[in-house]
Every structure is written in C-alpha cells, then in structure tokens.
Design goal:
Oligomer: single chain
Radius of gyration: 17 Å
Strand content: 5-15%
Shape: flat
Length: 141
C-alpha cells in the first residue's frame, strides 16, 4: 500500500527535455488508471510502472525518491540528435548543474552527449561518466 504521506517526484524524462510530471501522493493520489499521468505536457505519455510495481518500489526504497525513465531519456536524446542532424559537427552538451546525477550523465554520455560544466565538481562528474577532452564545455554560469 502506498502511504498517505508519501512524497514522490516522478521525472519521466530528465532535463533538459522538460517533460516532467510531479505528484504528491496523498494530496493528489495516483489516478485509478495508473497508466495515465495527469499532466498537460504528459497527456500522450504512459507512466512506465503499474501501481503494483510502484508500491513494490515504495516498500523497497525510503521516500522520497526519484524515479527516472531511462528508455524515455534515450528516446528524447535520439529525437534531439535527429532534429539537429542537418548541422554537421553539432554536439549537444548537457548542463551538469541541471541534474548532477552520475547515472543520468552516463546515460547521456553513452548516447554521445557532451557535458557543459561550470565547476570543478561538475567536471569530475563528467569525467567519471566518461566524458573527456573536447566533449566538455566549460562555462562560468
């Protein structure tokens, strides 16, 4: 059973892709049909877990927790790459400060993204994810 006081931020697609669905369970409970996420930008997307699968995660991990859809992230990366495929040499650099999660950065690196770093810790995260040399852009903001 999902506890009434559970606070979960469910990111179906990671920044910078802006498709974010937020929910505070208890104040705004999951819909009876958990395959549909009620958010204007996500109306055509499907929640990747059944209610039973979500309840199993709640029982396994302390809340709040973040849940990322790797498949959705990769699909969005591929759409971005396709949209810019007409520009030879174009490379997208993920702003590490937007989401300094090493697992997400590794997913993006595996898809050919570079890293936009503005601090030494961000540079270390990018390098740990396998983003090196010319694939790192340093900015001051």
């Amino acid at each position: 059973m999902i506890p009434d006081n559970l606070h979960v931020l469910i990111l179906l697609h990671c920044l910078p892709f802006v498709n974010v669905c937020e929910g505070i369970l208890g104040e705004r409970p999951l819909p009876k049909n958990p395959g549909i996420c009620y958010h204007a930008r996500m109306s055509e997307k499907r929640f990747p877990l059944s209610r039973a699968e979500l309840e199993k995660l709640v029982g396994r991990y302390p809340t709040p927790f973040y849940l990322y859809d790797e498949k959705g992230i990769v699909e969005n990366v591929r759409r971005i790459k396709a949209a810019f495929s007409g520009f030879p040499g174009y490379k997208n650099h993920f702003a590490v400060k937007a989401l300094p999660n090493p697992f997400i950065i590794k997913i993006l690196a595996a898809q050919g993204f570079g890293a936009d770093c503005s601090s030494y810790p961000e540079l270390l995260l990018a390098e740990a994810a396998g983003i090196l040399g010319e694939d790192i852009m340093l900015t001051s903001n």
